[in-house]
Amino acid sequence: MAARVLLRRRAVGPLMAATLVSGALIPSVAHAEAPPSEHRLHSSKKPIYDDYEPRLPDSSTPVPSPASETIPREEKEPPKSPPSSSSSPSSPLSSSSPQQQQQKQPSQRGPTPTDRLAVQIGQARLFLYRQATRAEDAVNRAADRAFDLERTFTGTVASLAPPRESGERLLPGLAYVLVASMAGSIVSRNRNLALRAAAPLAFGVGAGWLVLPVTMRNVSDLLWRFEQRVPAVADAHLAARDSVRQGWRFARAHAELGRDYVDEKVRTARDLVEDWVRQGK
Fold this sequence. Notes:
70% of the residues lie in helices and 0% in strands. It contains 9 helices and no strands.
């Protein structure tokens, strides 16, 4: 036990000597409070007890006002005054602050993918609307043409019918026309092809003019309106009608001449016979 105590006392001496030597060679200062200002300038560590002192802007630095949504961009930006010669070149902070403010101002935001998609959808909807409108207009025009055609057809058929005051009846008259056409076909059955085609038509038209004069007049007027759409056909029709009328007048004149001639001959023969009878008495 005594040896252990002696050994411990002998080891304490060299340890104390080493501690003193190391403290002399490596100087270090431990301060309970903040170090002096000179040491603070050269030290890279930040003291924990210093108060925060905000840096106030210079009087020459313009203070930007908060942006307002109701003021246009042109009114927000103050007019730039031309550089004066009196401004000192030693104020780089005041000259660079407007550039920094312009850089800090938010640039105009471009269209996002959502905006572009909305524009494309709007264009597609407008295209579909135009196509649907065109299709609807085409259907309406087709329906109008169909209704006009139906109205024209019904009006045309109704215009061919004779009025009630004329006294014509279509059913027996059409039956007579059909019978006359069949009679013409029977009469010309042993003739050539042209006569067999023309005879039923001639007999039917003649019977129509005899039994249905008003209806045939309406039909002829309708055919004339159709012929007027083709001038060549209308001119040929007029020429044929004029030739037929002229031939009819010529035939009537010759018939009257023949009748007068026959009447004269009959009168002469009767007078001669009467003279013979008188002389015989």
